[in-house]
Inverse folding.
C-alpha cells in the first residue's frame, strides 16, 4: 500500500468529462500503477482538509505509471473535485490499492456488466479476463447515446459487446439485465457474470442469473471511512454473515447479498450529505460575489469573514 507525502501530491495528467457530472482523472502514480489489480480501489483526498473518498481503479498503465479514476459529482466533495481537479493540479493523497483483487484465471466464458458509472470499474476486469484467455462478453448500460463512454476500449478487449440504452438511441433498448438475457440466450456455457453499478442494477443482474444458476459477482459500494475494517461503516450482509467491503470485498456473491440492507444504509446519511452540499454551494456563491473593501484596514484588501468551506464538512 502506498501513500503520498504532503509536499508532493499526485499530479493529474489528463481529464475527460463524459457528462455534466461524470469525469475521469488520469493520475501519475508509478507505484500504484505497478501494484494495482482489477477489482481494487483507492481512497483519495483532494486536499489536506478533504474528505476521504473511495474510488474504484478504472484503469492503470504500468508503463506510463498512471492510474485512471472515474468520478461522479453527486455530493460536496466530488462536486468540489469536479471544479478544482484539472490537468496540472495534484491530489493531496491516494491510499491503496485496497480490497481483494478479482480472481481472473480459470474462466472460459464470462459476461462483464457495467451500468452508468459502473462501466468504468468493470473495464479492468474485462481486460483482465481477456488477458487470461477467457471469451469475454461485455454488457454496458447507459440512459442515452450521449452518455456512452469507453465503448472503443471495451470493443478492444471483448469478443462481443452488447450496448443497452434506456431510450434505445444506441444499441438495444432496455436495461443491462435485458442484455444479460441476450447473452444467456446466445451462450449456454457462461462460467460467470460480473456486474458493477448502482445497487438496484446489480440486484436486477443477480435476479436475472439466479434461475440459470450462473455464478454472479457484484462490487459493493457501502459507506466507507478508513478502508481498513476498523470503523465498521462498510459492513454488508452476505447470506448469514456480516462482511466488510473494504477488506473482505469489494467483490461478493450477488446471489447472497442483502441489497435491501445495502440500499437502506446508503441512504442513512442523506440529510447530512445534503446539508454539507448546501453549505458548500452557498459558500461558493458568496465567494463569487464582488468582495467588499473594509474601510480603515490599511491594506485595501477585502475581508468577508467567511467560514472555511472545508471546516466540519460532512458527507459528499
Amino acid at each position: 500500500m502506498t501513500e503520498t507525502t504532503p509536499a508532493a501530491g499526485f499530479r493529474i495528467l489528463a481529464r475527460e468529462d463524459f457528462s455534466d457530472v461524470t469525469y475521469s482523472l488520469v493520475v501519475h502514480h508509478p507505484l500504484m500503477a505497478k501494484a494495482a489489480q482489477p477489482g481494487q480501489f483507492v481512497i483519495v483526498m483532494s486536499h489536506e482538509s478533504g474528505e476521504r473518498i473511495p474510488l474504484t481503479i478504472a484503469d492503470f498503465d504500468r508503463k506510463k505509471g498512471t492510474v485512471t479514476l472515474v468520478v461522479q459529482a453527486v455530493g460536496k466533495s466530488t462536486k468540489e473535485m469536479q471544479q478544482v481537479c484539472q490537468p496540472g493540479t495534484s491530489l493531496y493523497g491516494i491510499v491503496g490499492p485496497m480490497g481483494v483483487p478479482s480472481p481472473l484465471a480459470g474462466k472460459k466464458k464470462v459476461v462483464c456488466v457495467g451500468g452508468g458509472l459502473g462501466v468504468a470499474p468493470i473495464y479492468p476486469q474485462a481486460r483482465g479476463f481477456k488477458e487470461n484467455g477467457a471469451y469475454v462478453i461485455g454488457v454496458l448500460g447507459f440512459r442515452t447515446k450521449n452518455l456512452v463512454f469507453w465503448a472503443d476500449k471495451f470493443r478492444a478487449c471483448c469478443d462481443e459487446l452488447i450496448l443497452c440504452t434506456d431510450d434505445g438511441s444506441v444499441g438495444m433498448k432496455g436495461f443491462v439485465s435485458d442484455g444479460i438475457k441476450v447473452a444467456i440466450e446466445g451462450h449456454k456455457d457462461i462460467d460467470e457474470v460480473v456486474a458493477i453499478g448502482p445497487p438496484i442494477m446489480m440486484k436486477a443482474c443477480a435476479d436475472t442469473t439466479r434461475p440459470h444458476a450462473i455464478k454472479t459477482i457484484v462490487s459493493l459500494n457501502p459507506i466507507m471511512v478508513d478502508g481498513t475494517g476498523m470503523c465498521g461503516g462498510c459492513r454488508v450482509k452476505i447470506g448469514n454473515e456480516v462482511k466488510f467491503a473494504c477488506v473482505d470485498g469489494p467483490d461478493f456473491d450477488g446471489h447472497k447479498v442483502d441489497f435491501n440492507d445495502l440500499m437502506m444504509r446508503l441512504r442513512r446519511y442523506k440529510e447530512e450529505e445534503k446539508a454539507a452540499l448546501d453549505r458548500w454551494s452557498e459558500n461558493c456563491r458568496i465567494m463569487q460575489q464582488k468582495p467588499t473593501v473594509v474601510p480603515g484596514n490599511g491594506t485595501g484588501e477585502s475581508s468577508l469573514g467567511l467560514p472555511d468551506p472545508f471546516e466540519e464538512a460532512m458527507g459528499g
User: Anything to note?
Assistant: The radius of gyration is 21 Å.
